[in-house]
Amino acid sequence: MDFEDIPFEEIIRKEKIAKSLEIRKNTESEKKNVNGSYKSCKESEKNDEVDQKLKKYGRITSKNSPMEVSSRRPTLPEKLENERNYIRNKHQGLKKGNDPRFNDSCGKLNTDLFHKSYNFLDEMRQKEFNQIKNTLDLYKIMTKSKELGTWNKVKKSSKFKNSDVNHLTQDQIDDLKLKYQKLVSEKDHRKNLYLRQQAISQHRKQEQAKIESGKKPFFLKQKDINMSIQHDKYKNLNKKQISMLEQKINRKNVSKFKPPASHRKI
């Protein structure tokens, strides 16, 4: 039978049947693949559960085994944990140590003996003070020379060769400045305390001698103590420091001065 003898409708019908068979085969193969992947997914999930149990308990447990209680403590949320740590650290910083050497039960505090025995601390502070001052002075010279353009000549001097000022950062310089100011204020405070103690002890000695002769005791007021401290400070000043102090006092007096009402500008 030739191809020409087959009717056109029969050819179309056979092509449709062939297409439907191909589609059916493809769907069956896809179903098989899906079932296989689903089974593999289930197996992988089971394996993951087993691994988790092994990590948690160290062995595979069955569903009928009794429940094991964990020894882990319940943890707070991050925000509450941070707040608790902040409060704890805040109260820890308020604790102050107690040195028995400065307690009244250990006897009276002899300041002269204390200064003699702990004189090495003042020497250490003075050494540190001088070192910081020298570094800051060198830093000032370095900055000025860089501005003027003479840094290449200045850096060859022995001062800069023996120092590490070139390698210091701005943050380190700021820290040194703060430390220097702190040391200066501590030094002034110790000096004021020393002058105060000297003024009081000297006055007591004088009063004790007068009391023995029959005079009534007289105790210094706070104003008198401050005046004596200022007097002692003024004695130890240089000419330059005295002139600077006088200028400061004059500026203060000028700012305080108020002209009479008739001369005021309206």
From TrEMBL:
Superkingdom, taxonomy of origin: Eukaryota
Residue ranges, compositional bias (Basic and acidic residues): 40-54
Subcellular location(s) per record: Nucleus, Nucleolus
Record GO cellular component, one term: nucleolus
Region (Disordered): 29-77
Keyword vocabulary terms for this entry: Nucleus, Ribonucleoprotein, Ribosome biogenesis, rRNA processing
GO biological process terms held by the UniProt record: maturation of SSU-rRNA from tricistronic rRNA transcript (SSU-rRNA, 5.8S rRNA, LSU-rRNA)
Family: Belongs to the RRP36 family.
Description of how the protein assembles with itself and partners: Associates with 90S and pre-40S pre-ribosomal particles.
Function: Component of the 90S pre-ribosome involved in the maturation of rRNAs. Required for early cleavages of the pre-RNAs in the 40S ribosomal subunit maturation pathway.
Name this protein carries in UniProt: rRNA biogenesis protein RRP36
Organism (species): Cryptosporidium meleagridis
